[in-house]
Amino acid sequence: MRDVNNPGLEQIVPDETRYEIDLILACSKGSLNENDRDTIAHILKNELNWDYFYRQAERHLLIPLIFHNLMNTAPEHVPEEILRQMNKVYLHSMTRSMIQTRQLLEVIQLFAEHEIPVIAYKGVALSQKIYRDIGLRISFDIDILVRQQDAILARDLLVLRGYHPLVSLTPEQDKKFVHLRCEHGLVHPHREMIDIHWQFIPWYYLHPFEETDIWSGLRGISLEGKEISTLSAEMLIIALCIHGAKHQWKELKQVCDIAGIIASEKDINWELILKIAREKRIERILFLGLRLGEVFMNAELPQTVSRVVRGDPGVQRLVSSSIDTMFRGEQSQVGDIQDVQYWLSVRESLWDKFRVVSLLVFTPNHDDWAYISLPWILSPLYYIIRPIRLAFEYGVKG
Length: 398
Known about the structure:
The chain is α+β, with helices and mostly antiparallel strands. It folds into four domains: 1-78, no CATH class; 94-231, Beta Polymerase, domain 2, CATH 3.30.460; 232-348, no CATH class; 364-398. 58% of the residues lie in helices and 8% in strands. The chain has 20 helices and seven strands. Strands 1-2-5-4-3 form a five-stranded mixed beta sheet. Strands 6-7 form a two-stranded antiparallel sheet. Strand 6 (219-223) and strand 7 form a beta hairpin. Helix 11 crosses helix 13 and helix 11 packs across helix 14 (283-297). The radius of gyration is 22 Å and the shape is globular. It comes from hydrocarbon metagenome. InterPro entries: NTP_transf_5 (IPR039498). Pfam families: NTP_transf_5. This is Nucleotidyltransferase family protein.
């Protein structure tokens, strides 16, 4: 049922699809209470466009979770073919998550042998944390966090075991890359892709977090009987809000992650979250993620936090845009330029916007190094080459 405190959702979602969207939202929670079950039962009394329902659930990467909740409420009211298709996706997600779990534990053990501490970030660890079930959240790769000084060694250890980095770098470029970027992506011909992170987002988008912020208050969870480290609830909420904004909040799954953490963690230090957001100048990024959790999933924020979140007029504008994109069938454009444009829209100050644009335009990265190979002594020329390359590349595309 609609939340009367969230009129924006009511106004933007078309009437002809309101029952299907209501059902998706009602079934996208990790734990259903009696009111949720009554809501689902009420919606299922209506005539639904099940093809549209399935397409939207698939688009937002929520089929395993929705299938699980439908099977535990009123499966008899769902067409058999829809249940069959959803069950197939759920089983595939569970199988893949089991493979990812074993691979994650192997990597953690490998790094431990070389005294590299690891934080399991997103992926199966997040699914276990939120849903207590690794198969309910679709994951396409394995995400881990290491300390910045360990990033190169961690990558090299995986290379020795048959993984291939997505970016080939010289030793001189290695150090610059770790400073500029936030992750190494590695693929394997027979295994899942691994992303080794040391920050949540490249430095030109946001000033890097201190390691003490990231590595303080780690939480432990159990995967296959083994204890592994995950981010504190506070840092995880911030990281997920940053990740969602970086990717334009294109998927409802991203909102479910935020709401899931809020629902599953009972001792969240909201003062610390607001303090970090204020210091990093990302209050609107945080507020947007929290408000989306309220609007879509009825996430229960403390009243003081909710008032602060709703007090930013720019947040409601961005929320309305997100709703429009998610459920009017007008998928947001995908690409580097579109991601940057969206990121600029969630930054409050002109200085922050200017910093992002200027650093993106003038700071060389691995794409420039691959575009033309120069001796390291001539590397300052990349500061001239990069804006010329960008002008040519995006000018041609335009």
